[in-house]
């Protein structure tokens, strides 16, 4: 065996393994009949940075993947990349100093693909360095034709099933991004705005209305009051004049109006908010769209046309103030919907868009078939599903996305949806191979809108389980690991799509991870300066230390704080493991003929118990529990107790006793490396390779040997620990010999290891020891004597010390101490003294340690 360095060199070890591991051992076997465990890994957005939140989630996934693989499952831990989307478009515009409309559509898309490919390459490097056991043979990239043809086919299939339709419908619109967005992409934030009180003209006298959005006056289509509103109900059924624009709108009654808010009268515009949309539908009101796709006022805004929304607002308020139309203003706290990406206030516009039908009941029922970990996360999906007012708007007005495979007949406008066999295609680059089914025309306009990227990623589970592939499909997948921030999007859409396309739940279980917080307890962000990149941690302490932080940082579902101290203690544990291994290496030898003694059997029992506990924790995804159990066994039971107990056998003469200890050490290290393999794959591999010459990552998960409890060995360990404490309390070297140790116990204990580890002769006896205690010293208490006897105290104390300790002890027992001072007898209570005693056994002084199950006598004199 070559020299084993004293210091564990994580850098050298980790880089060597990262470079030399054969990744094909992690490939899923499509032909295997072993039980499958397919993981629907999140496809990250290829920003080029694999951030710490990703890293936490991937550690969890890797713990599960490695554990299941060792447990005999045919595991797939694929890696996908969710490429399409606005951030890349923006980045490309920035890098090349262009706007997307300045170059041909295809060229712009090519630049986006190029940047994405570079970013994916960078992120792969980080993932490999962190030791993730990805199955790269099942990698997918959503911008590649083989993937987006599936996205397109999913569109066509759902269209043919009547689950996708195109309609004029209000949608959430981000004027800055210039695209429709789904409800799931709207964030809400409170803002303080102004509530303006203004007058609408009426023959019954002006009607007073309060609104926070006077810029929408030109979009006003009705005014609503509560039917029971005493003050205003006389207006119901009449018409009032819209100020500034001077046209009339009806006054309608609606129960939803809050008579206590503002003036109790509401202006209905198309559209100020979601409630406006509901009223618009319920009362069948006309459409007046005052804001366009770019966030500017339309022609119906008259002289305000083409102004930005905020400019128009200021101008209208000024005009109404000068006319006296506005008679009061007050501040108003409001919840405003913002674009999740750019934080611009969204507008609701009526647009012709593509929609996916949402069936809330079906989603809730399907979700109930899935095991949610932690359980309480399911309520988030249920709550979200309950708020669905509209269907899912899936068309976007962007470029870098999956094209919608549709054309429109130039003559009659009939839409032509592609056949599945024609896919993949971009309708902007290809004309359909058929003529218009309605009018026979051969001229078409392409659909220029593209698909929401969630249309790509919501078929990830189907894609990894072999849907539309050459393999027989294997859905559902077994596990979806993901963050709680995308339950309403990715989890929701995936359930919807799996049910719609294959009629099944997408996965058996969903494991929800929390967010990573900075050391200051805040969400990590570059601006807060609490941002940590995984690479930084790896350089300083290694991937195995980083992964230990992920394991112990918290249980899945809870937010996890990044703590350097967890990483540092991870590093310390690696060193401890290494030292343990370095000591054990020359001794660890497998042997079949040596019968384990009581101490060996005790360790094997502890090991078995630990394996059962860890296995149970892993099955429940409680990685912190699992890892702590392994660490405490390795550190406390194996290194601090077992090795100390058996050292003398290891260094003693060859024979069955020595071989039993060597074999036990081998078994312990073999099991420990296997159990650690999911958590710290590098050091586990390094030690295991040195031990047996075989990769730990192709080994099996250890199982409990079923050995029964070993009270004898356990007691020996306790006695040895008590003697160690005894020596260290007295400042004695741990290997310094004692005159003799007697252990009294009802158990039949072997003495070899006790004697070896205490460097002292040990005798084990049945029953309890025969001992006597003798008072050896009287210690008077000044605190008790002083206040009572004042000047006499000194003399009393002196006398007490001269007295026979045995005699004083008897008086204490009787409750009264009599002392003769200057011819006079003084009486003291038992609290006046403390009696020091010594323990004797067979007439010789001993120290006695009482343990549960044994009494230990340590002979102090010779
Ligand atoms: Zn935006
Ligand atoms: Zn036609």
SSE diagram, text form:
Blueprint: H1 10-20, E1 36-38, H2 52-70, E2 74-76, E3 78-81, H3 86-96, H4 105-129, E4 135-141, H5 145-160, E5 164-174, E6 179-181, E7 186-200, E8 207-211, E9 220-225, E10 239-241, E11 248-253, E12 265-269, H6 274-282, H7 309-323, E13 326-339, E14 347-356, H8 360-368, E15 371-373, H9 378-386, E16 392-393, E17 395-396, E18 406-409, E19 415-417, E20 444-446, E21 450-451, H10 453-457, H11 460-464, E22 477-483, H12 487-502, E23 507-513, E24 516-517, H13 534-541, H14 543-552, E25 560-561, H15 564-584, H16 598-619, H17 623-651, H18 656-676, H19 681-692, H20 711-729, E26 740-744, H21 752-758, E27 762-765, E28 771-780, H22 782-789, H23 793-802, H24 805-814, E29 817-821, E30 824-828, E31 833-841, E32 844-851, E33 854-859
Parallel strand pairs: 1-2, 3-4, 9-11, 15-23, 22-23, 24-25, 26-27
Antiparallel strand pairs: 5-6, 5-14, 7-8, 7-13, 9-12, 10-11, 14-16, 17-21, 18-19, 18-20, 26-33, 28-31, 29-30, 31-32, 32-33
Helix pairs in contact: 1-19, 3-4, 8-9, 8-12, 9-12, 13-14, 14-15, 14-17, 15-17, 16-17, 16-18, 16-20, 17-18, 17-21, 18-19, 20-21, 22-23
One zinc ion binds next to loops.
Describe this structure in words.
The chain is of the alpha+beta class. It is 38% helix and 21% strand. It has a six-stranded mixed sheet with strand order 27-26-33-32-31-28. Strands 6-5-14-16 form a four-stranded antiparallel sheet. The chain has a four-stranded mixed sheet with strand order 10-11-9-12, covered by helices on one side. Strand 26, helix 21 and strand 27 form a beta-alpha-beta unit. The radius of gyration is 39 Å and the shape is elongated. The two termini are 45 Å apart. The site of one zinc ion has 7 residues, from loops.
């Amino acid at each position: 065996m070559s020299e084993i360095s004293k210091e564990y060199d994580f850098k050298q070890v980790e880089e060597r393994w990262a470079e030399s591991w054969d990744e094909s051992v992690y490939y899923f076997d499509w032909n295997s009949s072993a039980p499958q465990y397919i993981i629907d890994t999140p496809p990250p957005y290829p920003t080029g940075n694999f951030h710490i939140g990703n890293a936490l989630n991937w550690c969890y996934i890797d713990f599960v993947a490695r554990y299941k693989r060792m447990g005999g499952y045919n595991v797939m831990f694929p890696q996908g990349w969710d490429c399409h989307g606005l951030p890349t478009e923006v980045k490309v515009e920035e890098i090349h100093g262009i706007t997307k409309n300045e170059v041909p559509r295809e060229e712009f898309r090519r630049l986006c693909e190029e940047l994405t490919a570079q970013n994916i390459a960078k992120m792969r490097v980080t993932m490999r360095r962190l030791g993730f056991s990805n199955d790269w043979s099942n990698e997918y990239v959503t911008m590649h034709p083989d993937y987006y043809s599936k996205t397109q086919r999913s569109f066509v299939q759902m269209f043919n099933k009547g689950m996708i339709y195109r309609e004029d419908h209000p949608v959430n619109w981000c004027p800055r991004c210039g695209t429709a967005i789904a409800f799931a992409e709207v964030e809400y934030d409170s803002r303080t705005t102004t509530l303006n009180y203004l007058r609408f003209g009426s023959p019954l006298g002006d009607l007073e209305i309060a609104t926070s959005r006077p810029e929408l006056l030109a979009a006003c289509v009705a005014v609503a009051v509560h039917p029971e509103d005493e003050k205003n109900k006389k207006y119901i059924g009449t018409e009032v004049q819209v100020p500034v624009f001077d046209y009339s709108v009806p006054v309608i009654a609606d129960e939803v109006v809050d008579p206590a808010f503002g003036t109790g009268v509401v202006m209905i515009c198309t559209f100020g908010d979601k409630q406006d949309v509901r009223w618009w539908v319920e009362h069948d009101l006309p459409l007046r769209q005052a804001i366009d796709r770019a966030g500017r006022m339309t022609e119906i805004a008259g002289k305000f046309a083409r102004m930005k929304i905020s400019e128009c607002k200021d101008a209208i308020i000024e005009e109404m103030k000068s006319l006296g139309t506005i008679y009061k203003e007050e501040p108003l706290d409001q919840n405003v919907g913002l674009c999740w990406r750019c934080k611009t206030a969204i507008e609701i516009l009526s647009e012709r868009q593509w929609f996916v039908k949402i069936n809330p009941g079906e989603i809730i029922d399907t979700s109930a078939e899935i095991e949610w970990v932690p359980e309480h996360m399911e309520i988030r999906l249920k709550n979200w599903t309950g708020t669905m007012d509209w269907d899912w708007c899936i068309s976007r007005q962007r470029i870098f996305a999956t094209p919608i495979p549709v054309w429109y007949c130039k003559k009659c406008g009939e839409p032509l949806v592609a056949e599945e066999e024609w896919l993949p295609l971009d309708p902007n680059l290809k004309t359909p191979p058929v003529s218009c089914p309605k009018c026979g025309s051969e001229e078409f306009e392409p659909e220029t809108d593209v698909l929401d990227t969630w249309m790509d990623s919501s078929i990830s589970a189907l894609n990894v389980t072999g849907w539309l592939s050459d393999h027989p499909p294997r859905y559902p997948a077994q596990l979806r690991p993901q963050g709680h921030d995308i339950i309403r999007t990715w989890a929701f859409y995936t359930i919807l799509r799996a049910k719609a396309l294959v009629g099944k739940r997408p996965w058996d279980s969903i494991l929800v991870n929390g967010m990573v917080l900075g050391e200051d307890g805040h969400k990590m962000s570059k601006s807060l300066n609490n941002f940590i990149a995984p690479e930084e941690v790896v350089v300083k302490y290694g991937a195995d230390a980083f992964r230990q932080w992920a394991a112990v940082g918290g249980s899945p579902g809870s937010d996890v704080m990044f703590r350097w101290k967890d990483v540092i203690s991870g590093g310390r544990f690696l060193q401890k493991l290494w030292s343990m291994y370095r000591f054990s290496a020359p001794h660890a030898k497998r042997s079949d003929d040596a019968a384990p003694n009581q101490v060996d059997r005790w360790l094997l029992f502890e090991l078995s118990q630990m394996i059962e506990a860890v296995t149970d924790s892993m099955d429940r995804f409680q990685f912190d529990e699992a890892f702590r159990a392994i660490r405490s066994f390795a550190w406390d039971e194996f290194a601090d107790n077992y090795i100390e107990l058996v050292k003398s056998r290891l260094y003693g003469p060859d024979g069955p006793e020595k071989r039993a200890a060597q074999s036990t050490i081998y078994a312990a290290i073999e099991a420990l490396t296997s159990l650690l393999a999911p958590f710290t794959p590098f050091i586990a591999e390094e030690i295991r390779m040195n031990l047996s010459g075989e990769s730990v990552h192709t080994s099996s998960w250890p199982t409990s040997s079923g050995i029964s409890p070993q009270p004898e060995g356990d007691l020996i360990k306790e006695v040895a620990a008590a003697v160690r404490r005894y020596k260290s309390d007295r400042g004695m070297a741990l290997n310094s010999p004692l005159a003799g140790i007697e252990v009294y116990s009802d158990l039949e204990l072997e003495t070899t290891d006790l004697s070896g580890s205490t460097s002292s002769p040990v005798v084990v006896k049945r029953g309890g020891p025969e001992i006597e205690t003798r008072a050896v010293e009287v210690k008077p208490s000044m605190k008790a004597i002083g206040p009572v006897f004042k000047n006499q105290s000194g003399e009393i104390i002196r006398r007490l010390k001269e007295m026979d300790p045995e005699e004083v002890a008897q008086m204490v027992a009787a409750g009264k101490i009599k002392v003769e001072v200057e011819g006079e007898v003084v009486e003291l209570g038992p609290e006046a003294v403390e009696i020091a005693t010594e323990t004797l056994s067979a007439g010789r002084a001993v120290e006695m340690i009482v343990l549960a199950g044994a009494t230990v006598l340590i002979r102090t004199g010779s």
